[in-house]
Amino acid sequence: MSAKFDLARMRLDYETTGIAEDNVDTDPMVEFDRWLTAAIEAEVEEPNAMVVSTVDPSGQPWSRHVLLKGVGPAGFDFYTNYESNKSMDLASNPKAALTFGWLELHRQVNIAGTVARISDTESDAYWAVRTRGSQIGGWASAQSRVLNDRDQLLEQYEKVEEQHPGVVPRPSHWGGWRLIPHTIEFWQGRRNRLHDRLRYTRDRSSDSETPGEWTLGRLSP
User: Fold this and answer.
1) In this predicted structure, what is the pLDDT of residue 74?
2) The whole model's pTM is what?
3) Which of 3, 47, 137, 198 is 20 to 30 Å from 124 at the Cα level?
């Protein structure tokens, strides 16, 4: 470990206002929208950044930062290469967890649920608003595969750029995933580590395709 820093003594005592059951919405998706809006208005850097955690076929968990690109009653959307490690994990085990960490606001949101690919129509619509450079990069990168060196990636980028001088179509191996939540926890840092944790859970006991009602409860920090 580095001798320059005493990690055991590094701490920040949070002096932020807490959250209570009677001042949050009964629908966690509405409450999430409020928190995301607050993060955007506070100019938190990349407020739509989230950690996506998956489990591979061997049972090993993996986490990485991804950008949220859509949210609504149906769930949380992000886009990636369908041949990437994360997509392979999701294909074999269609469950995932998301974590939003708005540290400047002493807040985080933890979400768990099931995942499914979004429609080609929705993937096409998002692909169309990406920059041309990002579109070419989507073709050029064989995500998660080993490269000999960076030059190999740049050469592939140039090759794709030459192949598509005009409109860059969405590759079939690239598109969106949607996490359909069954648990959403809102965490607010408080003084003396007596943090507020409000967790919404949705009834999954029914065989019906219609999601159950949300139940709100408080967790010990």
Assistant:
1) 94
2) 0.89
3) 47
For residue 118, CA distances in Å to 82, 104, 125 come to 12, 32, 11
Looking at this protein, which amino acid is placed at residue 79? Y
Q: State yes or no: is 193 an active-site residue.
A: yes
- State the first-to-last Cα distance of the chain, in angstroms, to the nearest integer: 28
- pLDDT for 210 equals 60
| Domain 16-130+172-219 CATH superfamily | Electron Transport, Fmn-binding Protein; Chain A (2.30.110.10)
- Amino acid code (one letter) for 10: M
pLDDT in tens, 73-113: 999 999 999 999 999 999 999 999 999 999 999 999 999 99
Task: Tell me the sheet residues that pair with 66.
Answer: 50
Q: Where are the domains of the chain?
A: 16-130+172-219
